[in-house]
Amino acid sequence: MGFFRTASWLTALSIAIGALTSTSAAQAQGKPITDQDVSDAWIYLFARLLMLRQQQLDFKDGFKWNELVHRKPGAVDWPNPNLDVAYSEAWVAADETSCTIVTVPKITGRYYTVQFLNGWGETLANLSERLFPSKPDGDFAICLRGAKVDLPQSTKRVDFPVKYSRVLLRVELGDDWNEAVRLQRQFTMHATGTPRLPAIPVTPAFDLEKLPGVEAFDSADVALSSEPDLNPGLDSYAANARAIQQAIRDPAIRERLATVVREKAHPDFGRYGPPIGHGVVVNGWARPAVVGTYDIDYVTRSLVNYGGIWANIMPEVLYYRASVDGAGATLSGDNSYSITFPKDQLPQSFARYFWSVIAVDTTHFRVLPNPKQRYLLNRETRPETSSDGSLTLYFAADKPANAPDGNWLPTLRGSAYRLTFRFYGPLDGVANGTYFPPPLVKQQ
User: Fold this and answer.
1) Going by C-beta distance under 8 Å and a sequence separation of 6 or more, which residues neighbour residue 142?
2) Residue pLDDT, tens place only, 150-187
3) pLDDT > 90 fraction of the chain, expressed in percent and rounded
4) Angle CA(390)–CA(398)–CA(374) in degrees, nearest 5?
5) Residue 444 has what pLDDT?
6) Can you identify the CATH homologous superfamily of domain 69-191?
7) Which run of H or of E encompasses 304?
8) Residue 274 contacts by C-beta under 8 Å, 6 or more apart in sequence?
9) Contact 430, 423 (CB under 8 A)
10) Where in the chain is the domain with CATH 2.60.40.1610?
């Protein structure tokens, strides 16, 4: 990386940055921004750009503020979907004089939650009987903190520190999909009064197949100014991103920084991928250290927004991801794999509610097409245990001869893929991080 530390490059960037009124840790010490600063700022900013990308896609798709969009089961288009649930979605806006009323129907014996996220992908709240045991259903008012709004006494007020949020509503499908959809459609949403609707920031579109380059910094100010980062301790990364936006107005600096992003930031982001940021990999399965709320771990936040946007907090669901088998080889649709759970460690024993495993491609993170139109394994596929009580699941393009049908997830020949194992309401070793699924074994 010596090429990027030439005196002319540092001097030019230092002069450009020095002209700004904003400050950063580097500037406060009179130091120029380094290649590592550029990489860190790019990864930090990427989380916000991913949320803005999805917000723009949503409203282009017909979303309206404070209106729920009820999806048919399986009809979602974002990375790493959970097809165990019926989804509904919305963008909620509130201000100093208006709240949004969310009506939750009475649901018993079936998992559900109404998750709210801010513009960085951080979970703000979940509405459910777990979080609100004294009021599991009825009307909830989603309000801006400090808003002056008169509400009926029966309405539970939930204050947020931001004026808008993303909603992801989940209702467990279970065995009776018709009942799940009936309950899903009973959730409603409407605004009190007439809130001032925020403008949707416009940032350049990009495909997940190709990471944005230096042009990501062109949107730094609009991205950062339109939504506060609620986590303390990250101000220097935001300041550096803004400084870089100013610096790349110089064509020579822009050209050099384009190379830094391509040869430094992108590889750094890729190296964090296998363990999901600062997580741990055991048996080929990665468990993130944080998810849903991230504190200072901006790296994991960007990775999760990239590969599984709308992730919820760990008490709700725990995600394990595998891109390799137990021998460390990349998972391929050309091979057949199995994973065996001992009878005393069956997946359901680690989930208060339910478990599932899906396979997605490694580019857009969408489920794999297959003639059977089966996109996950869970208890509803009725996997069979062996005579010794263990459970073996199979992943292959064609069903292995010894595999019960409900134990087999079809994969796509000629394609690399990865698996995501979910435990809803994680228990015991899944909850405390001491458990990892067994390794995937390549069949001969």
Assistant:
1) 92, 94, 99, 100, 101, 102, 116, 158, 160, 165
2) 999 999 999 999 999 999 999 999 999 999 999 999 99
3) 86
4) 75
5) 81
6) Domain of unknown function DUF1254 (2.60.40.1610)
7) helix 298-308
8) 281, 286, 323
9) yes
10) 69-191
